[in-house]
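Students often ask why we bother encoding 3D structure as a string. The short answer is that it lets us treat folding as translation between two languages. Here is a chain of 85 residues written in the first language.
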Amino acid sequence: MKSATLDSSRSTLSEVLGAAEQNDVVFLQSNGQTRFAIVPADDSDEEVLALRSSAEFMAYLADAERRAAIGPRKTLKQIRESLGT
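And here it is in the second language, the structure alphabet:
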């Protein structure tokens, strides 16, 4: 893994993006403390963004969370017994 550390108060966006193209990770610091890490986006990041933008998928997740909170529950032992493991 390559990394570059830039002082965010002295770096332009162009410099940060240029450093990101040359390295795997760019850490931005302010007052000597790391505040942000910039990493290249990959296909899974694009998929996450697309799913978060889907009202239908987000509604499905909200419904699943609601059902999990109020629905019947099984312990890990019960699940193992039902699967015969």
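Translate back mentally: The longest helix spans residues 55-70. Keep this in mind for the problem set.
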